[in-house]
Amino acid sequence: AQSVTQPDIHITVSEGASLELRCNYSYGATPYLFWYVQSPGQGLQLLLKYFSGDTLVQGIKGFEAEFKRSQSSFNLRKPSVHWSDAAEYFCAVHAMEYGNKLVFGAGTILRVKS
Amino acid sequence: DTGVSQNPRHKITKRGQNVTFRCDPISEHNRLYWYRQTLGQGPEFLTYFQNEAQLEKSRLLSDRFSAERPKGSFSTLEIQRTEQGDSAMYLCASIASGGTEAFFGQGTRLTVV
Q: What is the pLDDT of residues A18-42, one digit of tens each?
């Protein structure tokens, strides 16, 4: 079955430390890939997206993500986390052959300790 | 443009009552989506419109749920005979014609008591 997996439900990092949030997908072809962030009680904001080309994509707020076809992964990274990055992060996939819609992972809650 | 707007932001209703939510997308965005999000889960697709046509519905959308987008602008999502299991955040998103980025509203949080 087609799915998006975010293996980590919670991650806690110290302010200033690096961050990597994992995302794996299972679709036949390479879908469009997205990372969204959601603060409590708010809607989702797009951080970055990958369609094709350079497998390392830059996004807003200093985030980047790397697409690895061999691993069906699209991990989100940030070199130095700020306290304001505490939020929930969602990986999402858009694969047209399965409908014109985004399919989301279950999310990873990021906690930042000072 | 103020982005995607959803009303109300919060709704508390008694089990068995009907509720209706409204979504105003970004103007001229022709695609509009409804998602449902429960605690600890990512958003789950419910349905989507291209202009006024409802093109896809999830199996999650039982016959108690109905969505409309009568003039291809705003949309409403109605839940009839609400159940406690309907308690969730209902998110609306819109996408421009030919675009790929979904812009989300802040959601309507429904609590069924």
A: 999 999 998 777 789 999 999 987 8
Token reading at A42? 């708010």
Looking at chain A, the number of H-run helices and the number of E-run strands are: 0, 12
- Are B45 and A4 an interchain contact pair (Cβ–Cβ within 8 Å)? no
Residue A90 forms contact with B (CB below 8 Å): yes
Give mean pLDDT, residues A72-82: 97
- Can you state the percent helix, strand and coil of chain B, rounding each to 5? 5, 50, 50
Give yes or no for A96 touching B (CB within 8 A): no
Residue range A100-110, pLDDT digits in tens = 899 999 999 99
Do residues B88 and B110 lie in contact, with contact meaning Cβ atoms separated by under 8 Å? Answer: yes
User: In what side-by-side order are the strands of the sheet with B5-7?
Assistant: B5-7, B19-24, B75-79, B65-68
Beta-carbon-side half-sphere exposure of residue A42 (alpha carbons within 13 Å): 12
In A, which residues are within 8 Å of B48 by CB distance? 100-101
Nearest to A101 among B4, B33, B106 (CB): B33
